[in-house]
């Protein structure tokens, strides 16, 4: 039997990158997947965001792994979108076991209205996470069978990353720290219901959020705010792969981690141990 056999997992930001990787790995372990993604461009985000075609590819890969999947296009900044995605998934699968609040953006450089970049970062990665919890937790409590909630934070949620204080960078860092507070609050409140809540903190991951021409050019042309030493991992790897994070997610979602709650789990090649 696979590690997540019979479990239903709800993942935000599923169309590509880490979200897609989490969906495929959990499908390989026997889970059924509920997913949502904005599939649209937020103006302050400097790299091209995921598309409906990306979402369709995630669906294909999950099915290829032998699992069922239900997806919707939706924005975690809109509570009604989260409710609609969850309702459609539960209508199909009948239950919910794991929530992965993964949707994220990195509006840390231009172009765009930079003060707005602060608001977009916080709205997606802090308020959006809270809204995901606010929608999903009552369902998990009502079921009475426990569950696992995993929030994607960052190495930047345990320490500062980068040397600039641009609005988007500040919003990103504040949000990734902020979800740790949410995790600690919810993990204490939900322990009596056997619902575990944890955060995962990756270093730089080889996804389109980081591995894109625009960010590469920024790093090359702004050494004063993108010093290579500020991002360097102690272990000899520049960027980890999305599956490295997914493997940690699978563990936290599985019964192997049934008594693990309230932790900040780094998957960071030693970044926070420098």
From TrEMBL:
The keyword RNA-binding does not apply. GO terms for molecular function: oxidoreductase activity. The keyword Flavoprotein does not apply. Keywords: NAD, Oxidoreductase. Pfam families: adh_short_C2. NCBIfam families: PRK12826.1-3, SDR_subfam_1. Belongs to the short-chain dehydrogenases/reductases (SDR) family. This is Mycofactocin-coupled SDR family oxidoreductase.
């Amino acid at each position: 039997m696979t590690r997540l056999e019979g479990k239903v997992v709800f993942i935000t930001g599923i169309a590509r990158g880490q979200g897609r990787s989490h969906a495929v790995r959990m499908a390989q372990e026997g889970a059924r997947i509920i997913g949502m993604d904005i599939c649209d461009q937020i103006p302050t985000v400097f790299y091209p965001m995921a598309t409906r075609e990306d979402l369709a590819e995630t669906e294909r890969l999950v099915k290829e792994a032998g699992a069922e999947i239900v997806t919707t296009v939706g924005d975690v900044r809109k509570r009604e979108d989260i409710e609609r995605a969850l309702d459609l998934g539960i209508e199909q699968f009948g239950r919910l076991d794991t929530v992965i609040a993964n949707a994220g953006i990195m509006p840390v450089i231009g172009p765009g209205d930079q003060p707005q970049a602060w608001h977009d970062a916080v709205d997606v990665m802090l308020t959006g996470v809270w809204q995901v919890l606010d929608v999903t937790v009552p369902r998990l409590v009502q079921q009475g069978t426990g569950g696992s909630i995993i929030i994607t934070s960052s190495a930047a949620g345990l320490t500062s990353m980068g040397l600039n204080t641009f609005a988007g960078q500040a919003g990103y860092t504040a949000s990734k720290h902020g979800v740790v507070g949410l995790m600690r609050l919810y993990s204490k409140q939900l322990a009596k219901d056997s619902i575990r809540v944890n955060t995962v903190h990756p270093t730089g991951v080889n996804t389109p959020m980081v591995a894109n021409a625009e960010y590469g050019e920024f790093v090359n042309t702004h050494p004063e705010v993108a010093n290579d030493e500020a991002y360097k991992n102690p272990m000899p790897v520049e960027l980890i792969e999305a599956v490295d994070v997914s493997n940690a997610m699978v563990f936290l979602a599985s019964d192997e981690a049934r008594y693990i709650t309230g932790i900040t789990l780094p998957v960071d090649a030693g970044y926070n141990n420098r």
